Amino acid sequence: MARVVLTGAGLCSAAGHSRADAAAFFAAQPSPFCPSAPFGLPGYAVCPVSLPEEDGLGADAAAARLRAWRRRVYVSRGGRFAVAAALRAVADAGFSPSAPLPPETPVVAALGPTLDVAGEPGLAAAPLRTHGEGGEPADAAAPGLAALWLLRWLPNTACAALNQLLDLHGEALTVNAACASATQALGRAFRRIAAGEADRMLVMAGDSRLSAHGLLGYAKARALCRRDEATAGDGPRPFAINGDGFAPGEGGAAFVLESLPGARARGARVLAEILGYGATCDGGALTAPDPSGRYAEAAVRAALHQAGHMPEDIRWIAAHGTGTPLNDPMEAALLARVFGGGPAVMALKSWLGHTSAVCGALELACVLAGWEAGKMPPLRGAWPLLRDDVRFVRSACPFPGAAGVLESFGFGGQNAALVVRLGEAA
Question: Which of 179, 225, 359, 366 is catalytic?
Answer without folding.
Answer: 179
